Amino acid sequence: MTTVLETDEHKALRAAVAALGTRYGREYLTKVIAAGAHPDELWSEAAKLGYLGVNLPEEHGGGGGGIAELSIVLEELGAAGCPLLMMVVSPAICGTVIARFGTDTQKQEWLSALADGTRTMAFGITEPDAGSNSHRITTTARRDGTDWILKGRKVFISGVDIADATLIVGRAEDARTGKLKPCLFIVPRDAPGFERRQIDMELHGAEKQFELTLDDVRLPAEALVGDEDAGLLQLFAGLNPERIMTAAFAIGMGRYALSRAITYARERTVWRDPIGAHQAIAHPLAQAHIDLELARLMMQKAAFLYDSGDDAGAGEAANMAKYAAGEACVKAVDQSVHTLGGNGLTGEFGLASLITASRVARIAPVSREMILNYVSHQTLGLPKSY
């Protein structure tokens, strides 16, 4: 296999994004969250520098790269303390799906705007009664002449309040078999019958979570993305980048927490030497660093496979990367908070809020248990229990 270690261009991109992230930092994001606002300044500057659309086609205003480059951007912003969660959704999931399967009109309307940050798109798949089982999605799409009528509910959908549209996963009846098949639709935010309700979360982030109701939302034929008979292929074309980008989000968060703990362990002196000289402090931090580096290697492999067009291989690697990064992130955050002791729970050091945030990487967009199920029966060939 061709090496997945980073090229000089990747290293240069990583350094440039790190410099941008450092100029904003955790303090910027904390103020944005406290004000109930959105990180518009960072989003706009990242877009202006070409980072938001680095994975999108050059002919549509993007950088012509892939998920490998986009994951670097998100990881480095996260390592600086100011990750942009909507990067996972807007350019990675929605941008990728439209770039691969959208009509020429959809590409012209959306891709350059997603790349330059002037428009954003949310992604709606999770439902209240379906959970991790995407085969139980009950949002239906039925034909009415040339139009489509969507009806259903979605939950835990990020950033709908700022998104110009939401890429909704529905199910339409297959005329040949009568069975329901997944289809993707672009639903404008102001579409009649498309309502949202913000969910009260203990997790405090700049991007809010919403429950969506689609009450007979009428859409024109051109709202359908791609071929209605290739929905599953198109769906996983978005879900694999989602898992890779979630890994980048988690690795960045873990790196940020770890860097704060390392600085503290170098400087904090209780007895004669800094506490970082003691192996009880140093070894767990070293182990957290190793786990994050290992997770990054799997993330790089997954991005390489996906960008090379190996969807099947990328599926396994993307799930493994997301699993490894989620575990590494939770452990890194926990050890970092513990290293600071009481200070780890103060607002001054800003690590305690990451305890809740880091759990997201274990839960979303797919739980670690479902990833273990995937590896059990897809990779190991063991029988399914569900």
**Low-confidence spans: pLDDT under 50, at least 5 residues?**
none
| Average predicted local confidence, pLDDT | 94
- Look at the helices and sheets and give the structural class: alpha/beta
**Rg, Å, rounded:** 21 Å
**Proportion of residues in extended strands:** 5-15%
Shape: globular
Number of strands: 7
The helix count comes to: 10
Between the first and last Cα atoms, what is the distance in angstroms? Answer: 34 Å
Major sheet: size, sense and barrel closure?
A: 7 strands, mixed
Helix content: 40-55%
Q: Please provide the ordered H/E string of secondary-structure elements.
A: HHHHHEEEEEEEHHHHH
Attribute tags:
386 residues, globular, 10 helices, alpha/beta
How would you summarize what this structure contains?
With 386 residues, this protein is an alpha/beta fold. It has 10 helices and 7 strands.
